[in-house]
Amino acid sequence: MLRIDADLLVPGTGTPIVDGTVLVDGETIAYAGPTADAPETPDAEVVTAATVMPGMWDCHGHLTGMRTADTMDLVLVPEALRAARSATDLRLALDAGFTSVREVGGMGLDVAAGIEDGTVVGPRLYGAGSILSTTGGHGDLHALPESWMCDVAAWKGFFRVADGVAECIKAVRSQLRRGARVIKVCASGGVISDVDHPIHQQFRHDELRAMVEVAAMADRVVAAHCHGKPGIMAALETGVATIEHGSYLDEEACDAMVETGAVLVPTRFVVDRLLAAGRATGIHPGHLAKLAALADRHAEAITMAIEKGVTIATGTDAIQSGADLPAGWGHHGVELSLLVALGMTPLQAIEAATANGPRTLGPQAPRSGVLAAGHD
Fold it and tell me: What is the pLDDT of residues 217-275, one digit of tens each?
């Protein structure tokens, strides 16, 4: 039995408790509440702390092993080198207080096995495998010949292109075959991609609906990269569980998110950091111009979502490897301060980083993110 006595217990949701205690029996919380009401535990190992709170969640990270913000490095830099870098990134996340990461495209599915067998130190990973995109969409490496994208997917790539219902179904099943815990799709154009526009919808309604249906058959949910409102509304209408970024959310879209229970993962971190660092990140000038064009609208959308009561979970969209880089791993906590600057209270930001994290995984969610009896 482990006993943690703290001056302040922050449960993840609800009011913090002055002079609180958490009792851990094996891998399960047996008690969390006021120290005065805690059971006697004469044989427990005792730890004292100023504050105890749940481990935090980054619900939108990418294990890329890239030292730039240029997605062509996913092809040009050897996979073994990128994996080695990612192992260091995982330790950085853990040291930052993030014990769970929803890895929505990258090497997470493969690296997770190293964490589970104890050879890699890092948070629990809930991987998506490849990001699914239309031809010419946000997840298509436009500088490559179109036929080469099939080879990229065959390498367990960061991206996989699918067009039409049949290909979309196959792409989802391929990620499930690899052990994906969540399915990631590009429902709109993006920023770090060449010829697509962030506002434009990409997958059709029937394609999105098919991917959501196949994922649900395996108790998985779909996370949709969405900047523009057309893609956001299509994703919500077809049952997508989380909206990533949400740059052009308006009142109608926020109301729809509240009605459907969809979770927003706004990823202000990557917008703020890449914009501030500019060309020093290695970002393409055209991509930087797209980022600058939506940055203010993105901030307004997050503030509106907070005011409208949309459920929000923290995610950084960290894409660079190394804490020395602007959008690198290890800076995950910055997202909380950015959300507070846009209208959240500190306790709301903590809830977004703890209790709301598991909600981004649907039926795959662990019982974590909250200090309460019976939770992990």
Answer: 999 999 999 999 999 999 999 999 999 999 999 999 999 999 999 999 999 999 999 99
Take residue 227 and report the two structure tokens written for it.
């900047």
Q: What amino acid occupies position 223?
A: A
Query: What does the alpha-carbon distance between residue 102 and residue 184 come to, in Å, rounded to a whole number?
Result: 11
Instruction: Please name the amino acid found at residue 96.
Output: A
Q: Known catalytic residues?
A: 184, 317
